[in-house]
Fold this sequence. Notes:
The structure holds two protein chains of two kinds. Chain A is mostly helical. Chain A has one domain: ABC transporter involved in vitamin B12 uptake, BtuC, CATH 1.10.3470.10. Helices cover 69% and strands 0% of the residues of chain A. In chain A, helix 11 (238-260) packs antiparallel against helix 13. The termini of chain A are far apart. By secondary structure, chain B is an alpha/beta fold. Chain B has two domains: 13-243, P-loop containing nucleotide triphosphate hydrolases (Rossmann fold); 261-498, Rossmann fold (3-Layer(aba) Sandwich), CATH 3.40.50.300. In chain B, the strands form five sheets. In chain B, strands 13, 16, 19, 20, 21, 22 and 23 form a seven-stranded mixed beta sheet that branches. A six-stranded mixed beta sheet of chain B has the order 6-7-8-3-9-10, with helices on both faces. In chain B, helix 5 crosses helix 6, helix 12 packs across helix 13 (374-387) and helix 13 packs across helix 14 (404-417). Chains A and B meet through helix 7 and helix 8 of A and helix 3 and helix 4 of B.
Amino acid sequence: MDIHLAADLLHAALRAGTPLALCALGVLVAERAGVLNLGQEGIMLMGAVTGFAISLETGSHAAGALAAIAVGALMGALFVLLTLPLRANPVASGLALAVFGSGLCAFVGSGYVGSSLQGIAVAAIPWLSELPLVGKALFAQDPLLYAAWALALGIGLTLHRTRFGLVLSAVGEDPEVAHRLGVRVLPMRAAMACLGAALTGLGGAYLSLAYTPLWTEDMTSGRGWIALAMVVLAGWRTGSVLLASYLFGFFSILNLLMQDMGWSVSPNLLSMTPYVLCLAALIALSSQGRFSDRRAPGALGQNFHKEG
Amino acid sequence: MASAEARQRASVQPRLVLERISKRFGNKRANDRISLEVRPGEIHALLGENGAGKSTLMKVLYGVHAPDGGRILWQGREVSIPGPGAARQLGIGMVFQHFCLIERLNVQDNLRLALPELTEGEIQRRFERLGERLQLKASLRARVSGLSAGERQRVEILRCLMADVALLILDEPTSVLTPPEATALMRGLKRLAQDGCSILFISHKLAEVERLCDRATVLRGGKWVGTVPLAETSRAELVAMMIGKTLASLPARPRAPAGETLLEARFGKCGRLKRAEFSLSGGEIVGIGGVAGSGEQELLQLISGERRGAAHRLVFFGQEIGAAPVQRRRALGIRSLPLDRIGQGAVPSLSLAENFLLTHHGWGAWIDGPWVNWAEVGARAEQALAGYDIQAASSATPAGELSGGNLQRFLVARELLGEPRLLACHNPTWGVDPAAKSRIHEGLLNACAAGAAVLLLSEDIDELFSLCDRLGALCNGHLSPVLPKAEVTPEIMGHWMTGHGDP
């Protein structure tokens, strides 16, 4: 493989992995606080269609991305409303949200099917982007991708290094104890559910604004679901979650390459490979001893109600 | 002197006053106009049976429950305590019976979580200084899930002290400790009180309360019964205040001549249990002491049949039953009372009658081929309720609605109705009030008088010495020799439990 092809492959893989990475980060922050929201697919689709429609109408990518974040947060707030004050079962509520989001997205997006949009332009960083192999991949990307990486770094540091992250994991591990220690559990959970959904919405917008700026129905093709599985297999660690997302991106680009090379395998089978390979790699990793400690937050998906 | 001066100041202004606090849950008055006063530097006991309203009152004080009526005065000023955070800000710290630590985090993170105002360095310094006073050897980096119950408790107390509390609430603090640990704790508490910290001490163990506390407030049925200075109050008076009548002392026990050997056990490694060898005879009570986690759960399960294997020999009436399942052992007359009432002993959402059937489903008048005669089951369950003065509406009441003491009495009654030849029980009176405790002890003694062997696994030294014929102890999975009571002193038990060699 010549170096240009390798550089292109890397460049494309990072773009392909970013929507999933954003969604998985959203899942991660919510689940670390004990919030299990299975509605990611619906939220991501809503983010994608909102971002696309607003960008198309206003001509501003930034407005599209911000609108996607807002719609994601709104979907998160809907989930919070259902599960916290109304005390609905979180699993059922999440599934309902997934179906609701997909349906609404199809309705809103029906007018845009087939229309396309000028994708977010690449903002190459001078000099650095000239580096061989990694230059293009790391430093000739669009601003939204840089923003995603900055978010990932911020989230990783916050979760693992700050007092806020400690309080967050206390809420996810044992809300009863956290409450007795004076942590306000429900506001924390509500905020993390909304923040998580906002990130997922932004992931959807990356898909429709940068990765494939052409509206088709079911743009996310299951990324919301795979993100949920990935966070589990990555053991709720920011670094592993990011690694897994970009592994997925790499496999999905490899899959496109194989289709180009005219492999005589059904394209349906081929398009399955990134999902299978990514999960297989994670399962192989998580079955090793040193990952055995990485179990779910103790109170994941359990409703918490203040007594008295 | 200093203490006289302190007393003078105390008479001027109590640190805490609760005035006519009321709290209702549905129709139940958990607290009915309860008043309480704690002076600076005082160790004040809060006594009462299960369900007397002690926990509710403490939760009101700690801001977990909002009171329906009454006032809280702190240092003479009326305050409202909307949450635990507010309580801690005032200088009220509480150590719950169920530990308030997050198991997967290390000690340092647990401390940081509760003490946002302290820097890392300050936490380190205070931990070292206070840890030495409380003789806590655990490191800041140790994960809580790896600490013993005693260590966890000291981490909690230490955490309260690090926040400069003026009132420390302890809910049954010694129930998880070995005797030497309990003694060390009480020494530490006395020192704290001398430094001016007030302590509210909730306990069932009257001997402990008498040794440690200055005054006691007694609650019964959600109402205030009285506040008395302990130096001028006898134990009988205290018990009478708690249960509203005087308690019959234990029936003089006819010393049954040691019967034939019923059971010989030789257990190998199993979970935390490493090695245990003992025998039981009909008509005797054998007590095994030990702190939680020293293999006592495994020992009970090996007898009940929940755990079994080729490495364990168990001969019952000359029959090798080491591999026999639970149901067959029950048929032979082996019954057990596990530690965990809810979950292992009973299913909380099922009725008492259904819970009765859970350990009686093999045979009996209520089993007719494949059919269950529910009327008969209900009648038996009612019989258990009546025989043990259990306060429950009927045998259709869900088990989870009974208080701890009532449920435990029901479970004892249930197993004894099965007329066991061997009853193994684990902490049967843990956390139950004196009346229930004496009733449970009576039941065990009756079974024994009827010729059954009783194996009592307990953390309560007083209980072991008052009931048992022979005594032993577990430490780190090893069982000490089991000797007649006359040859064992509490000191020897302490040595056995802590593994400081055989004296």
